[in-house]
Amino acid sequence: MPKKKRAGAGQKPIPKKKHSAAGKEIPMPKKKLKIGFFSLTCCEGCELAVLDLEERLLKALNYIEIADSRLLLEKPLSKKLDIAFVEGSVISKHDLDSLHSIRERSSFLVALGACATIAGIPGIRNSLPDYLQDKIKRNQIKPMKEKAFPISAFVKVDFLLQGCSINEEEFLTFLNRFLHGKTTRLEQIPVCFECKHRQNSCLLLKGIACLGPVTYAGCNALCPSENAQCIGCRGFTDDANFTALDSLFKEIGLSKEERHNLFTYFNQLPEELKEFAKENSGELPNQLKELAGENPKKKIDLEALK
Amino acid sequence: MQLVRVLNYIIEKESLSKWLESLSQKSTLVVPVENETGATCFEEFNGQSLFLSGRTDFSAKKFFLPTNEKMFFFRKKTLSYGISPNFPKGRLIAFGVRACDTHALNALDHLFIKLLGDDCFYSARRKNSTIIALQCREACSSGFCASMGCSKPTGHDILLAERPSGFIAQAITENGQTLLSAEFFKKTQDPFPEPSLECSKGLSTSGIEENLYANFNHPIWKKEAERCLSCTSCTEACPTCYCYSSSDCFEFGSGDSSRSRERDSCQLLRFSEVAGQHIFRPSRESRLRQFVLHKLSYYKKHFGTHLCVGCGRCIDACPVKIDITEIANKIQGDAKK
């Protein structure tokens, strides 16, 4: 049997069909997308959540290249980045300087996780009583501001990936859409929507204060499905009705301090709650003292803090 | 096929679970149960204890309209496309469906099969399903099915009624008759019980579609909207809420993609957003009004039936206790003055 001639050798090239990609590899961008991970003041948990993708992250590495990451690389591989993922909030001069340089280096900047998007856990200090604030200031190396801030307070942020820690599926979806030249947007959907899809009984109806109705969905109602209240780690929706939820919490029997603490657990107070905060700012130390009176262990802790 | 002669059968309480087990071997059987979080809903049967003392918190809607379903796919490599491999197959038996939910399924049938020109996903599920309805012994606390004319089941295959010793069963269709196997069911001369339900809540439905529409700017909308959290509990608990949106999703890097549809809710801000980012119903008031008017006014005006079956799930599910009957009755009362 004669050997088949290789196509193209001494033959007319087959004319390419227009508008047909059948049988061909998909033209993905030749250059890999350069991404970097940066951590400001945070626990680096969101970066770990990305690493939790394991095999799927390895698959994604055919299309992306991790060019800068303190956790993954010895030294940065590239100065210019296509996407910079920044986790953590800005609480010191050092944080602010590195944030500005990251913004300059990257064409797209994504805030990763609760600390970067809404100030999250570091933001708790914003509503702490003075004597605890002093304690933090004493320990801090280079205090810059009185408060912790989300990164959007200082630089232009192109997209938010929310949650504490982030939902790694959402990270992958975002990256995937980016590779296909599609934009992603924040859906104004409350946690309750996904909670109802999982057919959970409502915690608010059971008399447990839950921030589900005002918090961005995307976590698949993780906490309420385990009978734990939503504490708003994914940030408040634009559509949130705080006044109604606040009065519902009042009916449930939460004190002013408890309500304030729940709303500010992860989130900075939005406009509607600012007045509420003003009213209550004087009562916060009292609440801690009350707690201290009830619980001797806490009392010792508080004394030590002073 | 509807049976001409309806016979009554009895089944002992002990043999009910055996019967259900035999049904679940041949097809997917969904039964009302209490789940881990304490909510009552329909789940696939695997020997759990049943919840039969009343209407469930969530209807069996998700087995006919899944919250997220892939419809079709494109393969860029082979330039092919086709209907999703997850296309519904196999028989579904829903056990313990209450009268209100049979009416809700009827309403969805009307919409997805008649009006939308045979939605293949819905009708594949629906045509391959058997509904075993269960008669309510007592009216539930927040239901108003009697006012909506939905207290007697319709469109079911078998009707069951609970008795102290067991259940009395009636096969309505041929499809249902085949399931009443002689192994578990015995013929009986006992009459089928006809309990008269007295719902605690009521709704005066005479001329409601016109009255609600005429009172588009009634102050009650604003008043109730102040409490509303727009949490979508009402629409997601409602057995007739069917709104969905569709979106494309991509497989990583391969260029394959698929289109899926997800449940959507009129209570969400972006629900009525169109190109150019215009939102038709930006205020909470207008979204709440849309929910009530769609159920009790628009649908009746356009298609001849109310989309509300009076199950009262939206009332039970609402964290701030907004009550559709209170709103409707207030407007009805004001209109009659």
UniProtKB/TrEMBL annotation, chain A:
Pfam families xrefs: Oxidored_q6
Superkingdom of this protein's organism: Archaea
GO MF term list: iron-sulfur cluster binding; oxidoreductase activity
Keyword Lipoprotein tagged: no
Keyword Oxidoreductase listed: yes
Signal sequence, start to end: none
Key words, A-Z: Oxidoreductase
SUPFAM superfamilies: HydA/Nqo6-like
Disordered: annotated span: 1-23
InterPro entries noted in UniProt: Hydrogenase_assoc-protein (IPR051349), NADH_UbQ_OxRdtase-like_20kDa (IPR006137), NiFe_Hase_small_N_sf (IPR037024)
Domain NADH:ubiquinone oxidoreductase-like 20kDa subunit: start-end pairs: 43-176
Protein name per Swiss-Prot or TrEMBL: NADH:ubiquinone oxidoreductase-like 20kDa subunit domain-containing protein
